[in-house]
Amino acid sequence: MDLPDIHHLSPGDQQLVIQSQQNVLLEQDIKGFIAIEPFADVLDKVGMHQEARDYFQKIILSATDILTQARCWRKIAVSLVSQRDFINGGIAAGKAISLFQKLLLQTKSEREEYVKALHASAHSYYFQLKFEKLETIAKEIKKYLPDITDIELRCNLLHVISLSVYSKYRWYQFPEEAFNHLELLLQLTEKLEDKFNHAYAHCMMGHQYLYNEEFALSREHFSKAIHLLEGKHFGQLLIAYNYTAVSFRMQNNIAMTEQWANRTLEKAKLTSNISYVPYSYANLAWVYIKRENWLYAENYARKAADNWTTLSMIYSYAFPLMACLLRKDELAEAGELAFKIIHPRLKKFPSDLTQKLKTVVRAWIASDKVELRNALREAIDEAKISGYF
Amino acid sequence: MEKTIYILHQKSSLAELLAWTLRLGTDLNVICLGGSQELKQAETLPDLILVQPELYEKIHAFMNGITPPILLIASHPDDEQVIDALYAGAADVVDLGKGPEELLEKANQTLTNTADNNALIRKLIHKNKTARQGEKDETEYGLTVKEKEILKQMRDGNHLKLIAQTSDTSYETVRTHVKRIYKKLGVMSASEAVIKAMKMEL
Description:
The complex is a heterodimer of chains A (about 400) and B (about 200). Chain A is mainly α and about 400 residues long.
């Protein structure tokens, strides 16, 4: 077994990989291919995801037992999801799940492996906005939740359940259940030594309160998360930064939105967390619209549109861009945006806003400029009233 | 197996928007083609073709009658061209003014064979109702028995392929009869011919 190129790794990580390889070489004669698995785990942990996945694939090809194959597919899925390749991550998780379902899942470790695969699958569905499938997975997870004693895994599962509740309901209409799971998650993570999970739970709670329009509570949770993260775990830190900006945007606070959007932008660029760069641009576009600096507003809105990396929250840049286009009377592009944001797969808007956007689409398709202009104005006003602008 | 949809539209930005809509809403493999030339180069037949009504005839002729279901993408679903294409065998029409939901629903219905087969009849009745009043009484226009039979089938919403099948005639012969019917009735489209047929009380 050759050692992959590890020169780009830190000395500590290089040592870890070398040590792990030596262990494999020592054990390979006795254990065979299975000995490679911990080595692949180490590669994945130090960020050599592709190399790790290649080894997992090799194990799958040579393994004869279903459990090993399923576990390796699960690890491939987790690795892909961690790299935000949700489509292939979902496919790998699906393969793992179907293999696990062939087993009787009699042992605790089998059940734990199975729910880990469900967890990876749920994440891939969430980010692909396949909410019905996410709900099915969450139901399956609920069946196994009482058996899971590992706190970290339990927290991950509660996270999936709360995501499925969050994605199912519209804003301001979250059921009690949406908060109950997160409360439990907060309590559980508090017991963990690593504060990361607890900070993450605070981020989730902040997010949920934000879209329940409880802004003070929302920012309180984000602030706790920022404190706990101590400048580390940039992914989570940026969630807290970004949604603090959003909470100010939803409250029409221009100065604070700008401050937090810039803070997010700076950190996101520094840490290569690219998905928060366009989100910050969208927030800055909103800031410049409020200041009636239309040139800057359009520039930021377009930068947001061009760099948007996820499917969710498209409206964050779409409404500011539509406002800029309306002002310039470039109505056709605004009509296209309206068509996009009412896609049934995306987060549902309140009925009034949806109806007004549908009127925009009708006028755009009929090439009725007068009607399109009026309809756009009304839709943007409605978005402002309902907090989506 | 993954199903494939081709979108043929002269306006590439609209084609891309529709492709984005379908990719996000389904697990289908969606490919945008600029025109029939690209369709010619395609290695396999798709499961569904989405096309603007103006291109329907061309695509249909090019495919030599062996086509997967064709959905029309229309800005104005009551246009003559839409009705003609429906008459000639297009599966259904997507009214884009109804938003992305309509596109997803119609694509899904067509792929699963649950499409509304009465699309043509609905459109023709609507057209007939809104037709101008006071047109002169129609005679039989010198139609032959065979032509009347075909016109009657057209009135019932049957497309050319079906008429050819039921009357044990080739598709091309039916097309020739239809051209003659148009000439005798002094009409330019299937919808006009059907309106005349309704007035003749065939």
